[in-house]
Amino acid sequence: MTNSKDEIKNIPLKEKLILTFEENSEKLLGKKTSHISKIKQKAFENFKKIGFPDPKSQAWKNTDLSEVLSKDYEQLFNFSTEGTNVEELFQCDIHNFDTHIVSLLNGWYVNPSEQITKMPDGTIVGSLAKATEEYPELIEKYFGKAQNKNNNFTELNTAFSQDGIFIFVPDGVEVLKPIQMVSIINHEKNLLVNHRNLIILGKNSKLTFVQCDDAINHQTSFTNTVTEFFLEENSNLDHYKLQNLNNNSSLLNSTYFKQEKDSNLSTNSIILNGGIIRNNYHVNLDGEGCNSEIYGVYLMDRKQHVDNQVYVDHAKPNCTSSQLFKGILDEQASGVFNGHVLVRRDAQKTSAFQTNRNILLTNEASIDTQPFLEIYADDVKCSHGATVGQLDEEAMFYLRSRGIGEKNARMLLMYAYAAEIIEKISIEALQLRIDDMVKKRLRGELSVCDKCVLHCSKPDKEISFDIDMSKV
Amino acid sequence: MAKDKDKIIDKVTGDDYKYGFYTDIETETIPPGLNEDIIRLISKKKNEPEFLLEFRLKAYRHFLKLQEPKWAHLKYPPVNLQDIIYYAAPKKQKEFDSLDEVDPELLDTFNKLGISLEEQKQLSGVAVDAIVDSVSVKTTFQDTLSKHGIIFCSFSEAVQNHPDLIKKYMAKVVPYTDNYYAALNSAVFTDGSFCYIPKGVRCPIELSTYFRINAAKTGQFERTLIIADEGSYVSYLEGCTAPQRDENQLHAAIVEIIVMNDAEVKYSTVQNWYPGNKKGKGGIYNFVTKRALCKGKNSKVSWTQVETGSAVTWKYPACVLKGDNSVGEFYSVAVTNNYQQADTGTKMIHIGKNTKSTIISKGISAGKSNNSYRGLVKVAKKAENSRNYSQCDSLLLGDKCGAHTFPHINTNNKSSIVEHEATTSKISEEQLFYCNQRGISTESAIGLIVNGYAKEVLNKLPMEFAVEAQKLLQITLEGSVG
Amino acid sequence: MLLNIRNLHVSIEGKEIIKGLDLSVNNGEVHAIMGPNGTGKSTLAAVVAGKEGYEITEGEILYKGKDITDLSPEERACEGIFLGFQYPVEIPGVSITNFMRTAINEQREYKGLKSLTASEFLAKMEDKKKLVEIQSKLTNRSVNSGFSGGEKKKNEIFQMALLEPTMAILDETDSGLDIDALRIVANGINKLRTEENATIVITHYQRLLDYIIPDFVHVLFEGKIVKSGGKNLALELEEKGYEWIKEEVERMS
Fold first, then answer.
1. What are phi and psi of A164, to 5 degrees?
2. Which of A25, A81, B448, B473 has the most other CB atoms within 10 Å of its CB?
3. Does residue A18 fall inside a structural domain?
């Protein structure tokens, strides 16, 4: 369904993008005959046809992109560090959090020494652009195979993306050191970034992947990322997403997981700041015996907007999925949760659970939640729940009766509320760090400053509440 | 063994529709088609005041700008509105002063349906407004009711006798701009029921409207308007059936309820339109807009529905909780079988302070049917301390049907509490074995368990209706065992 | 002979649980079957009642002289076989009254008898309630929904009283009962004893047998009855434990 009025509004950016693509098609498409080039060309043609989504459509009526799409953006089709001190920018020294860091600056892979690394165990980590040249067979096998067809922004990304992270874990390999991706936006003008990640876990392999999105200046940016994850048989992915952006940035983050037989997925999103954040999770349980845990917590204030869209497709029998999303919305912040569990006809013995809980702290804040179940198999255990409420008044009274001031008691309860998700983080050092960030966030002390999302350069180990947290 | 169970489910769910007979009564119809002339003709036939014709035409002109909604989880061939006859009335109609003037065939029809229009023969105190195709044929107990100042009559009669009330309240809760079917209804509605309960009056008997589509190729477009003035109470029942036909017939109704301070309306529906045959041929398209406005403080509306019929159901009885402390309730059992499709639920719009709403929905899907719950709970900024609790369960009988839940919660107030829970399950092997071991056949066991599952909602129905509804569930799913 | 089980072999999903079991029960007798966990006691009960998912690979179950292995669970129930469940199933929304009335009338229909009217049924129910000291309120509640362990077991005996079976098999009816509930349940069973019917009590502990005096005690071990005796066997078991049986079995083989 199209709406002529809104379409006119969309024309400038869409038309501009089409012109830009055509002008830069050589850079964007690379070798005309390559596999990827064809996929990109097709995505472009499709985007040309479908453009941006109808703001009145079910999927978009609660997240207003009209302002984002009415701005003018620059796109960088060549890598440039723009005189930023790259080494200083990317450093992460969370105590005891030993990770392999891969960095993106304005959507481009940054590494002074080499663009792609093959480790002794065979794991390949590096730039997607470089991987396309060096491992065309892997790219051909996986690229674009997990993504949703006809998703406006995914098509846009497919057409425009030039770089991003590539990880390949061979069969049977357990990557011990977590791989941490730090994506930073730093540009003097409004910037549109389309970066793309491809992460492949071979049979019986294991990977921990931490995905951090951050913006370091206060310039407007619009980031549209797509990440495809492939979990081959009996592989194990532990995935974290940390989002702490400035209030001028818009982030559209689409994550596609394709799971084969007996694979395990745990994905956990910690969303602390951002102008408009929209996360699409698309989990395809395409083999028997898969398990997916999809968690998220969002703490928003000011005029921030967060939108989590979770689509879980139970295509095969004997799979389990659980979703838990919790949010606190303060001031004029708004939240959207749209969960959709689809259990297909043959997906017998499915267990699917879905929960979304929200707390509103003001009458200016709002939440819109739609937990959907669509079920075509009868031998299933499915349930969902959604709540909107306040902090537990009984608990408030209890804490205050123990001499805890109202402000602190409130913070303590909010912290306890968020802690349910934080506790699910299995890397201890990361858990402590995020725990720390959440406390800071609740105290209003967390801002988007220099450095990456984890603020390692200014670790504030002293952050604590005036009271013993163990009382909660 | 799973196969055996499927067979039994097939058997128990394959029962025939017993209201599918057609009565051969003389019917006056107008040519099919939808245009301004037809609308003028309907208005003229009903001898309507000018304002009503104006309203119809405005609605029609607006309707032309609208498109049929496609968001529901429903698939059906499009309805050609030009093929429908918009007015069909049993002949000999005029004012019936006594039953003797009513066509005996028609009386017989209602007797077959288990509804007696002869007051002295009625055991329970239920006043009935019987509507066949486009017109009301008889309203019983009008005299008894008028002693209390209660107006209970057909919509057409109200237009003639109480035009002021119609003008004041009609389309105030469901404006013609509301949606596609509401606009269509506003343009072509033919009859319906009207009810006004004056201040402080507790209606002593249940009021009931019985809808029957009889003529072929007709659509039924009725409007019901209920006004409960301050401190009053009424329990209202609605039932419906239609003959078995291979063609799909359209039913697009509007029900509006206005509840003043301290008043309460209980609205119960047992919807049993012809559902189509086992192969999905024929059946009624039931596209209904029902909405109650809790206008006054401490007002209360409770919708209870048992949905077993229709090929396609599109229906979301809503409560607009405007008065402070007002209460909205929605209790629903929806059963779909064979190729039936239901997309039904409710909307609870919290506007006033301390408003409360409860939603209990039980969906039962069998055969190749699809059954969806769709609901909206909205809490406006100023609805301090409002509460909602929703429980929506689905039960699947067999592995070829679908059960879906599409709730939507939108909250803009920090002191409100909204809770939604839902589960999807099937009848467990253990439950069936337990029943079998006590000597209960699988067929009866399914009926027993389904009725148990729906009990929370069936209990909300008035006694006379509860028994009928329970039977209906058994007929739809269980066969003959009581 | 009422029940005659000969060389019974039963498998679940290919795994043999009962491995050549023989058991004969006559009218008027009470048999106790004891044995450690996981030896096939509950399987035996389920197989006699006709639960799906069990494969009889060998042997036969004769009831009143006829092989019943091809009968459905409800036909066996109508023939007078009653199973008291170890874990009674919850059926939300279905009152015990409605449940039992349906059961009794279906059984009567099977036997070619007229259905009981509501008042006949209620009178019968009042009568049987006293037997198991059941409270009136309980029968209005949904079958086993939210019942305590004791209430569930009392409810099983109450149903047995109403259905008047010829062959009752009570699977761990004593588990999870406090001493008062145990006494009530046992008294109920004793009162229902006649010359015509028979009862098999499956239990893990000797405790129940202080209240219900069995004519025979059998020890079931690894899918077979390895020892049978009078009521004293139960006492011996209580004293020496199941280890003793294990040793005895090993010694014999």
1. 155, -165
2. B448
3. no
Rounded average pLDDT over A45-62: 88
Query: Could you report the per-residue pLDDT of C105-122, keeping only the tens digit for each?
Result: 999 999 999 988 888 888
pLDDT at B172: 95
Between chains, do A368 and B408 touch, taking CB under 8 Å as contact? yes
Residue B15 has what DSSP assignment? P
What is residue C149's predicted lDDT score, i.e. its pLDDT? 85
Tell me the ipTM for this assembly: 0.88
The reply to whether A331 falls in a domain is: yes
Q: Is residue C1 included in any domain, yes or no?
A: no
Task: Tell me the nearest-neighbour CA distance from B480 into chain A, angstroms.
Answer: 25
Q: Is it the case that chain A and chain C have 3 or more CB pairs lying under 8 Å apart? A: no
Residues 6+ apart with CB under 8 A from B357: B319, B321, B327, B328, B329, B330, B348, B350, B377, B386, B387, B388, B389
Interface of A to B at Cβ within 8 Å reads 1, 58, 345, 348, 358, 360-390
Instruction: Search chain B and give the residue with CA nearest C51.
Output: B433
User: In Å, how far is B254's CA from the nearest CA of chain A?
Assistant: 26
Q: How far is B405 from chain A (nearest CA, A)?
A: 5
Residues in B closer than 8 angstroms to C82, CB to CB, are 437
Give A211-227 pLDDT, tens digit per residue. 987 766 667 889 999 99
In this prediction, residue A230 has a pLDDT band, given cuts at 50, 70 and 90, of very high
Number of domains in chain C: 1
pLDDT at residue A453 greater than cutoff 60: no
Using CB atoms, list chains with 3+ pairs below 8 Å to chain A: B
- What b/e string do you get for B323-360 counting C-beta neighbours within 10 Å, with b at 16 or more? bbbbbbbbbbbbbbbbbbbbbbbbbbbbbbbbbbbbbb
B394 in reach of chain A (CB within 8 A): yes
Chains that touch C (3 or more CB pairs under 8 A): B
Please state whether beta strands A124-127 and A165-169 pair in parallel, antiparallel, or not at all (unpaired): antiparallel
Confidence bin at B186 (pLDDT 50/70/90): very high
**Is A243 a member of any domain?**
yes
> Contact A190/A73 with Cβ under 8 angstroms?
yes
Average pLDDT, chain B: 85
Residue B294's SS3 state is strand
Higher per-residue confidence, A324 vs B428: A324
Smallest CA–CA distance, residue A264 to chain B, in Å, is 24
